[in-house]
Amino acid sequence: MATTKRFTRVTGDLYRGWEKAMTQWWDQVLESPAFLGQLGENLAAHSTARAAYEENVDRSMAAMHLPSRKDVVQLARIATLLEDRILAMEDRLLQLDDQLGRMERDGLQARVDAAEALIAVRDKLDAIDDKVTPGNKKTKKKGS
Amino acid sequence: MLQRTIDTARFLRSDPIRTARSGRTPHRTIFTQGKSSLRYFPVPEGQTVNCPPVLISMPLINTWTVWDLLPGRSVVEGLTGAGVPVYLVDWGRAGPEDAHRPLSWYLDDVLNRLVDRAERHAAVHCGGSKLDAIGYCVGGTFLAIHASRNPERFRQAAFVCTPIDFHKSGRLATWANPETFPLDAIVAGPRNFDGWRMADSFAWLRPAGATRKWMSLWERIDRDDFPELWAALEKWSRDAVDFPGLAYREYVRQCYFDNALIAGGWVLGTQTVDLQRAKIPALAITADGDHIAPTESCAALADAWGGSVEVQTIAGGHVGVSIGSALPAALVAWSGR
Model pTM? Predict the structure, then answer.
């Protein structure tokens, strides 16, 4: 048991030592402008080669009267642009819906305000009426 | 030691990476535009709903599931568990037809629309108050720009591991150098920047990481929940997403080459990017072991942001914070629930 534990510890120490050494070495490489410059050039060359390959495949597909990747991408792009337009219309509809909602609320509020104002005016008129003809005790109409 | 090795081999033979399942917190997609979608995570039934909801902007360069990796290891679950409804911006997977989309399209058109739909949905389900916003990694950078262009839109914002001063981004800043990184030639066309290249670059930020992850599995194979977590994380990190070409060019040029969020002078679409225009309070959460968005890069928000900024540092790495318990707790406390 003790031997196994010691072996595990030694293995762990060995691993950590190796990891530290490797990290230090890689740190130097990955920070080196020469290495990074070369890596950048390789990435660019890879992109160029891939573009050329895709161009060739597209040409072969066209020669066989088959839709190429370029054609499919173009169709998908048109679809996304159409979706943009539909969503712009949806935005406009939602804005109109908001405006209608606001108008409805404002209209409702205006009707409530008008009804309250009407009641107030009627009450005032009744009060004036009572003052002008004190003997005239007519039944007040409730505001409707 | 032998038993550990046998257990590890047995675990790997069960194909755990392929079968790992993330994104399990109940939710539904309430709006889509192109590849992007708005996911709504309601509060579990029977629990008190604490409004306003939060909107989460995830990074464009990975899948969103890292914030819902596994039950008990999920930021989204932590928030909904505290009664906070969540709207999550999932950018989806860009295809070659998206290569011509400029960054302004993502920030001013798509994000604007997704936030609008979240606001409308929240108005029905949670009253009409403003949303809180959270951004993670590049998603936070996008959110910061969006919030500065729409200063009245959110109640407050939190930025998790969000790079702001890109010249303080450690090794990534060294690599994204116009002298050694021929951006236009690499993303010529424009074609999308391959997700696998992005994943490889992140892996090479820490060269020992590739062996360390296998060692960590071997060391902790006997822990109850670790192997499942390891497999889910491995699946997520391998599931790379392409970065739309034109947007990538603009992002790298402005953020990494020119450090435009700090230096200024970035005209995105028709408007200059100026984080000083943002006036809402912000929280910058940084991770002390973050090698992708180091603390000094994220904490630069304090000077760049127009409103008040609190900086909090929690233990963990860039991805590690997403699966720990400290981040959900910090976000729940920040949201005031």
Answer: 0.89
